[in-house]
Amino acid sequence: MSKFGTLVMGPAGAGKSTFCSALIQHLQHNKRPCYYVNLDPAAEDFAFEPDIDIKDLISLEDVMEDMGLGPNGGLIYCFEFLLENLDFLTDPLEEVTEDYLIIFDMPGQIELYTHVPILPGLVKHLMRGSLNINMCAAYLLESTFIVDRPKFFAGTLSAMSAMLMLEMPHVNILSKMDLVKGQVAKRDLKRFLSADADLLADDPAHRLEDTENPNRDADPVSKNNIMAGESFNRLNRAVAQLIDDFSMVSFLRLDAQDEDSVGAVLSYIDDAIQFHEAQEPKEPRDIVDTDMT
Ligand SMILES: Nc1nc2c(ncn2[C@@H]2O[C@H](COP(=O)(O)OP(=O)(O)OP(=O)(O)O)[C@@H](O)[C@H]2O)c(=O)[nH]1
Ligand SMILES: [Mg+2]
User: Fold this and answer.
1) Which GO terms of the molecular function aspect are on file (predicted)?
2) Which of 26, 113, 162, 230 shows the smallest number of beta carbons within 10 Å?
């Protein structure tokens, strides 16, 4: 029997937990069961109570206090501890059936997705161990990044880094689309959805900064001057070209308040994990019975 899940990842504050809640709500409206796993040891408030909460195994606050670690070191410690105690996840997940979508809500520390080799170990356990979960990563990036194009490419690079590191089906998502509505022309938005290196050359903000900054020459080390400098531009162009050359990253749009938008993202996740192919066809009578309970 297969199991199905999605790992909701992305930088701090990208809207991961909000997306998880919107997804749970959407699944409930569509009478689909889901299983919510919180893997953020610092998360406090939940719109839906998690079925598994890493805080029942280890809390970031305790780790920071007892081990004298900061929030990032503490988080890495929590994940190393989780990897040494995987039964905490395995035992309850063994019971989850194939009609469930298992939603993993991840923390936002970017180290987890870039250079620390912890997540690959966890993903390997979930996908290839006895649990055998068909998984898809949902990597969220805030759509407000597209207003600052170098920042957008830096975020896109982090998404690509996670894709390369985790080697699993991946959907990238521009979250909080409601915040950029009207700010970006529709034609431009399409170019952001599949990263296009020429976006930097056509960046109106950059041209403005270059010519309208009166301090450019007066203060050679000011932040504005560095950000408008030619070496900064060359670095950005190289990053953008690298992303363009790999041709791996494209984005879906998400407005977590809009049920259709959540449904559209879910359909990509379902396709990536082949959820519907594995479902037993239900007899019409079964459906009526289920509806009445
Ligand atoms: N306008 C708008 N705000 C959103 C949306 N999604 C999330 N937010 C807000 O963004 C903030 C962060 O959202 P979270 O869902 O907690 O983000 P997160 O990625 O889980 O954050 P961490 O777990 O701390 O990394 C909150 O204030 C949310 O209300 C959205 O679609 N639109
Ligand atoms: Mg969160």
Assistant:
1) GTP binding; GTPase activity
2) 230
d(CA 112, CA 120): 10
Are 233 and 170 within one domain?
no
pLDDT tens for the chain, 293 residues long, are 789 999 999 999 999 999 999 999 999 999 999 999 999 999 989 999 999 999 999 999 999 999 999 999 999 999 999 999 999 999 999 999 999 999 999 999 888 887 788 999 999 999 988 999 999 999 999 999 888 888 898 999 999 999 999 989 999 999 999 999 888 887 878 888 987 778 877 777 665 444 444 544 444 445 555 566 778 788 888 888 888 888 788 999 999 999 999 999 999 999 999 999 988 776 665 555 555 54
User: Which residues face 104 on adjacent strands?
Assistant: 7, 37
Secondary structure class of 51 (helix, strand, coil):
coil
Distance 139 CA to ligand 2 centre (A): 13
Domain, as residue range, for 265 = 3-195+249-292
Query: Quick one: 108 and 235 in the same domain?
Result: no
13 Cα to the center of ligand 2, angstroms: 7
For residue 172 and ligand 1, the question of a CB distance below 6 A is answered with: no
Which ligand 1 atom lies nearest to the CA of residue 11? 25
**101-105: strand order across its sheet:** 52-53, 34-38, 101-105, 3-9, 133-142, 170-175, 251-253
